[in-house]
Amino acid sequence: ITRPPGLAIDTGGTGKGLAADHLATLIGGTADCGGDVRVVGREEVHVLHPLTAETCQRVIVTDGAIAPSGIDARIWRSAGGGYAHHLLDPATGEPAWTGLISASAVGRSAVEAEALAKAAYLSGPDGARRLLAQRGGLIVHEDGAGEVV
Question: Which pTM does this prediction carry?
Answer without folding.
Answer: 0.88
